[in-house]
Amino acid sequence: MVEAPKVRVLVAEDDFLVARMICSLLKERGYVVAGEAHNGLEAIEMTQTLRPDVVLMDVAIPDMDGIEASIAIQRICPTPIIILTAYEALSLVERAAAAGIAAYLVKPPNARQLERAIIIARARFGDLMEMRRLNHQLRLINADLERFSRTVAHDLRHLLSPIMGYAEVLYMDYDTISPEEARKDLLTIVQVAKDMNNLIDELLALARARQEHVEVVPLDMAAVLNDVLRRMDYAIRERQAQVVMLSDWPVCLGHASWVTEVWLNYLSNAIKYGGETPTVELGWTLSSESLADVYWSPPEEDEWRIVSQTGALFPPKSALEGRAVAYFWVRDRGSGIAADKLPNVFNAFTQLHQVKLRGHGLGLSIVKRIVERLGGRVGVKSTVEAGSTFIFTLPLAEGEERVLL
């Protein structure tokens, strides 16, 4: 007999003799019985707490039938489910399929039937999770495209109008316009063209942050920041900004180019909107106690649940739960953001005219997408006329929390 993998199975069966027989068959084939539930509510609770690889669910279990319990499980913590039934009927099969149940068994099953059902259920469940992931990704992309279509109609046309206008003036009045006026008009055309190019770059970055797959590795944050400051050197000198930062930085799990993009967005915004001669502070902490009143942007719906079930290169949420995190922040002393505007800060294609955030509202949405893909969160703390603190979190590398505490 080929040794079966150590798959953990939750048995939800109210008939004691049937439950004993099924548990015996599972152990005979090398499976691990994670637990036994005797009614529908127990099955739901034990699935959440034990997180089995498969649930064997009696269709006629007390409190609620097995189909209803399965629907609840799939909504709360999706898991491969096999329905156990005393009879085979087309209506039952259709209900089970509609509930996302991957297989069914007619009682009493034998060992071979049981093993075959488990293999089929897990394979079908994997396909279902992949389909859900793709559908979820498609919905997000379609939402981006819908917002993008509205933005393009306004922003790109708004940027294109001065190019066309100044170019037409230069063409029509070429013989009469002074060299100084011509240079001024050409400079405006160049600047607006750069704005258009920046918008296109931001759109491409937004798409890459959703589609690219990268490996998360221990990351030397000090080295990342050295690169960020080097790339921001001209902007810092141009605005006569003072950047104050800590000397020691932790090692976190991340992807260097993506985390660099996060710091660049936060730092450039702080310099741009931090006042006439900006003072910008960069820091980090292991505790959220010093970050009271932070607005934490809600994560994209179901992102971790779907990713963790499909074995993507990103660490599953379960692998990050309980791991210590570092809170990184960039603080400015600018005009700040009104409290009612904070929920919109990280939304794509949102322009916060009230706080004079010029641009196209893409930079911070890219930050949000990157950080969440790396297992972190983004947040902002701001007071009008007192400045803003933009925050992101990343999980610490293995053992780093012990070194730093």
How are the secondary structure elements laid out?
Layout: E1 8-12, H1 16-28, E2 32-37, H2 40-50, E3 54-58, H3 66-76, E4 81-85, H4 90-98, E5 103-106, H5 111-172, H6 179-211, E6 217-220, H7 221-231, H8 233-238, E7 242-245, E8 251-254, H9 256-272, E9 279-285, E10 295-296, H10 303-310, H11 317-320, E11 325-331, H12 363-373, E12 378-383, E13 387-395, H13 400-404
Parallel strand pairs: 1-2, 1-3, 3-4, 4-5, 7-9
Antiparallel strand pairs: 6-8, 9-11, 10-12, 11-13, 12-13
**Main CATH class of the largest domain:** Alpha Beta
CATH architecture label name of the largest domain? 2-Layer Sandwich
Return the average pLDDT rounded to an integer. 78
Output the number of helix runs.
Answer: 13
Q: Tell me about the largest β-sheet.
A: 6 strands, mixed
At the fourth CATH level, what is the homologous superfamily of the largest domain? Histidine kinase-like ATPase, C-terminal domain
Kindly give the count of domains.
2
Portion of residues within helices = 40-55%
